[in-house]
Design brief:
The protein is an alpha+beta fold. It has helices at 5-14, 26-29, 37-49, 91-104, and strands at 52-57, 66-72, 84-88. The chain has a single domain (5-104), classed as Bacillus phage protein-like (Bacillus phage protein). The model is unreliable at 107-120 (pLDDT under 50).
Length: 120
């Protein structure tokens, strides 16, 4: 999924559990999480509220990829808890993909339930 309105819609409906009115296009309804840095950090804030922290790494070489990783507070992937990592051309896109990976996976015990979220 590229940085586009489909990615923004997935973030809005899965990370924030926000439905949209069926008579309005999702493209007109949701923030541009995957292309606007300020909107992407709203995603980061929501993930923090749910018990995750973010590690964001810039590319090591020209034309490299950004890395975004979410893991639970006070835990890390090395001790058995998964890190949800995504690589992308922009930090916003990496944040969105990593957040979706985290919320689509089963939440380990201790994670904060996302208000209104389905499953997981």
């Amino acid at each position: 999924m590229n940085a586009d309105r489909a990615l923004d819609t997935a973030v809005a409906t899965e990370v924030f559990a926000r439905p949209y009115p069926r008579w309005i296009s999702p493209a007109a309804w949701y923030p541009h999480y995957s292309t606007d840095l300020q909107a992407a950090f709203v995603v980061v804030a929501e993930m923090q509220r749910c018990g995750y922290w973010l590690a964001l790494t810039s590319p090591f070489r020209p034309n490299g990829l950004w890395s975004a990783r979410f893991t639970f507070h006070d835990r890390s992937g090395w001790n058995g808890c998964p890190d949800y990592e995504a690589l992308a051309r922009t930090p916003m896109e990496a944040i969105c993909h990593a957040a979706l990976g985290a919320v689509r996976d089963t939440q380990p015990s201790g994670a904060t339930e996302r208000k209104g979220a389905k499953g997981g």
